[in-house]
Write a structure and sequence with these properties.
8 helices, globular, Purple Acid Phosphatase, chain A, domain 2, about 20% strand, single chain, about 240 residues, six-stranded mixed beta sheet, binds zinc ion, alpha/beta
Length: about 240
Amino acid sequence: MRYGIISDIHGNLEALEVVLNECRKLKIGSLLCAGDIVGYGANPKECLDIVRKLKAVIVAGNHDWAISGRLDASYFTEDGKAAIMWTRTRIALEDIAYMNDLPLCLKNKDCILVHGTLNDPSHFIYLTDISKAAATFALMDSPVCFVGHTHVPMVLIERGGNIYKHEGTELEIRPECKYIINPGSIGQPRDGNPLASFGVYDTQMQTIEIRRVLYDVQKAQRKIIEAGLPKPLALRLAQGE
Ligand code: ZN
């Protein structure tokens, strides 16, 4: 099986379409979505419809849960709150119910999927570095766990009780190790690189790769501004921050 790992789409249709096009070329058999389909971008409904139609396996992100009120808006920045209020007016009640019911964690025979961390997933902790990773590694009963939330691609490896960061975008899975992988964000990258980011997990080859793809940033920016969403949400897309 070749999985496409998508996360933090945030209503950015331009970025999602380009990534899904890449996934088709790569012969991805199944999509795993680590949360935050909506929020920030101008096309929440379209993005949600697409990932549901493609039967992606989806866990809840903080934005997805905030739409229904399951997560309190006080968790968010002012721009984040404004985006949540706006998004509520652009999606159907049925969509809100769907997002409200998204689970925090999912597991299949090949991996685990969670937006924040496996410890306390409902608090959406940012797994930003090695110091935050031990609790999640301890709870992993599968060698591979995909996370999202930080919008920064990252690969952490645990081997013999030591955790270290893997530099580089390609990785071979070894039986003596465990892996936490953040594939980065499709719709709002924050690692200084504006290209949309996603992951490819090939269970046959036992490889994981983080890939970047160019999309029409200016079009996504224009739509955010025309929608009346906060301007910084458009500006940051060009910086990837
Ligand atoms: Zn996010």
